[in-house]
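Thread: Newbie trying to understand structure tokens

Hi all, I'm a second-year student working on a class project, and my supervisor (Dr. K.) asked me to get a predicted structure for one chain before our next meeting. I've only ever worked with sequences, so writing a 3D structure as a token string is new to me. If someone could post the tokens and maybe explain what I'm looking at, I'd be very grateful. Here's the chain:
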Amino acid sequence: MIPKNTICLWYDGAALDAATFYAATFPDSAVGAVHRAPGDYPAGKQGDVLTVEFTVCGIPCLGLNGGPEFTHSEAFSFVIVTDDQAETDRLWHAIVDNGGQESQCGWCKDRWGLSWQITPRILTEGYTDPDRAVARRTFEAIHTMRKIDIAAIEAARRG
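---
Reply by user tm_fold:
Sure, no problem. This is what the structure looks like when written as tokens:
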């Protein structure tokens, strides 16, 4: 059963592939029910995967195979908070090395065009630090990075 508040993500025929990748990559993630089209529709045929219920880090999602009309943009992204460099590297490389692409400041896109922010906890702590000098140094440091380097963030915080 679909939860009352669910994120719907539009795919061009790849909802099940994406959900399976997310479930294998992120903790507290799983593929749930797969629903097939009861009849032909503009983006597919009867029996094709129409929707996939899945969770990403505990967030309920519905993948909709709606066709090529709409694509993902950076206006929506998943923010995945990491605890150390190993976790940051693992998740970043899982996305980028499997057909995705790097962006700036901890952002990347998966092969379906969905944006992800792989954000070490220390990064948020740094740019929200009550000491405005620490916050500024942290903020300036992230603008030089693609994948976040925790050692460099720690150095920026220390000044």
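A couple of things are worth pointing out once you decode it. Strands lie at 7-11, 30-36, 49-56, 59-65, 77-82, 101-102, 107-109, 115-120. The chain has two domains: 1-71, 72-159. Feel free to ask follow-ups in this thread.
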